[in-house]
Amino acid sequence: MRIKEDSQYNPVGRGSHPQSLQYSSRLRLNMSKQKLFDSVRVVLVEPTHPGNIGAVARAMQTMGLSRLHLVRPREFPSAEATSRAAGADGVLFDATVHEDFLPAIAPCGWVIGTSARARSLSVEELSPPDCVERLLGKAATTQVALVFGRESSGLSNEELQHCHAVVTIPTDPAFTSLNIAAAVQVLGYEIRRSLRACTNAPAVEDASRKPAPVEDMERFYHSLETTLIEIGYLDPAAPRLLMRRLRRLFGRANPDSVELNILMGVLSAARSANHRKSKTPAGELPS
Is 252 found in the same domain as 142? Predict the structure, then answer.
């Protein structure tokens, strides 16, 4: 039987029965939680061991996650991955394989990277509970990604530039090596624990705004760099850390699509003004 969720439906007859209202409220809450689970994707960058892919799939399914994205896996599909998945075959079957990192996170409005070590000029660093609180607030309005790096070296600095924040799982300083499946399990557990503790729908940071996806932000960063070079503010021969710092600045702002269009308009106007100025003969004022 399909349960209608409009206010006129009453499974026990006329009037508002408290139990039916509680059931309807729980149903809506469970559907809201499931939508959040479905908004979270797990991205593995260049996994080298197929067994780890299977172990990650198992960890995901035990915690209710199902969206797995793989960037240049060394071996996939694989019998070893299926064996290590221990029944989580659906996660493997539905996994998406990408040849490059950016397509794996392109539709996401918030991307969280994982790192075991401090980086110079790193993005905002979060603990697992703080990461999940932010992640669930974003997941109500946009897709979000948890990104895990290579087993041997993690994520590169360039890949971390595309992340809005970094989460670090606290480990014994004397031995910080954490298996990738264990890391996925820890963060998956934090997500599930937080949602189980919710008696109301999880708080949304701002339901009226949807953060611009990574693919749109990348177009903006390209336009920004081009404009800064054209107006003479950025020297491409000696860029230093300018673009990394600007990425960090706009990453913190996490603009929505309307705000991003405004910024793109400003850049377009700046390039047009610079173009007109370059065509104006010396001694004349630009029109």
Answer: no
